[in-house]
Design brief:
three-stranded antiparallel β-sheet, hypothetical protein PF0899 fold, 2 domains, alpha+beta
């Protein structure tokens, strides 16, 4: 499950951020997940509970989902949609490689598959809060 690998990477990044800020204990880690990544938040939260040690022992992990937003290069239309509207095969393809969204998603205004993904990709470590 890639959620476990993500949890490990997030903990490593949060640990690095905490060291830069000279934090001895971590109370909260805020994470933003792009909708197109399709991360199972329950599995990610469980992974955090199993993997957190040391300064993260009492840390809470707040996860926010960023909706996918697109902008058509042909007509400048900007739109959002929910990944749940896609069939399982399409959703799975986008899950592993968000760039393939261009194959399955079209501009609702003009039908063009030429668009940019403005939001909804990636994973961001927003904040790491703790005690010095």
């Amino acid at each position: 499950m890639h959620e476990w690998a993500l949890a490990e990477a997030i903990l490593a990044a949060a640990s690095e951020a905490a060291e830069k800020e000279h934090l001895k204990t971590i109370s909260k880690v805020k994470i933003r997940l792009g909708e197109l990544q399709q991360v199972e938040q329950e599995i990610l939260q469980f992974a955090f509970t199993q993997l957190k040690t040391g300064k993260f022992q009492k840390a809470k992990f707040a996860i926010e989902t960023q909706k996918a937003q697109f902008k058509c290069r042909a007509c400048d239309n900007t739109w959002t949609f929910s990944i749940e509207t896609l069939d399982k095969e399409t959703s799975e393809a986008i899950h592993f490689l968000p760039e393939v969204a261009h194959t399955y998603v079209k501009c609702p205004k003009c039908g063009s598959p030429d668009f940019e993904i403005l939001e909804g990709r990636g994973i961001w470590l927003e904040t790491v809060t703790g005690e010095r």
